[in-house]
Amino acid sequence: RPRSHTVTTTSSSFTANLSASSSTLAYDREFLRTVPGLLMVTEIVLGLLVWTLIAGTEYFLYPAFGWVVFVAVFYWVLTVFFLIIYMTMTYTRIPQVPWTMVGLCFNGSAFVLYLIAAIVDASSVTKDLDNHNYNSWAASSFFAFVVTSCYAGNTYFSFISWRSRTLQ
Length: 168
Prior knowledge:
By secondary structure, this protein is mainly alpha-helical. It contains five helices and no strands.
């Protein structure tokens, strides 16, 4: 006996929404002209200096410098990640995430841990340890304090942004 071959297809609304929402990525050029954007770029450039100045030496012989490299690399990667999120306006596509709170927690933790790392870096730099690495370690200590102040500024702006959202 002949069989009837009927095929029924259905369209998912999730697939339609996904293809419609991911078709283009926005690009916010103006973010780099804001104070938080400039601070973020400064954090990336000077944070790169902090960890490369230490990583180019025999820092692994001294555990204190290992901590500084860990903090510097960890927050450098996360800052690049957040810069991409802000530049591509990805935060507008994920409204479930409280971005102002995430930014405040990120910048606040970066400020505190970078401050600790900068103090550890500065207190560990002596000519007694290793004379040929002294200049690199001293420069990394200076830049660590500059990056710390940048994260402090971004923490302030994140707090202002968070405060204005909670008052609404």
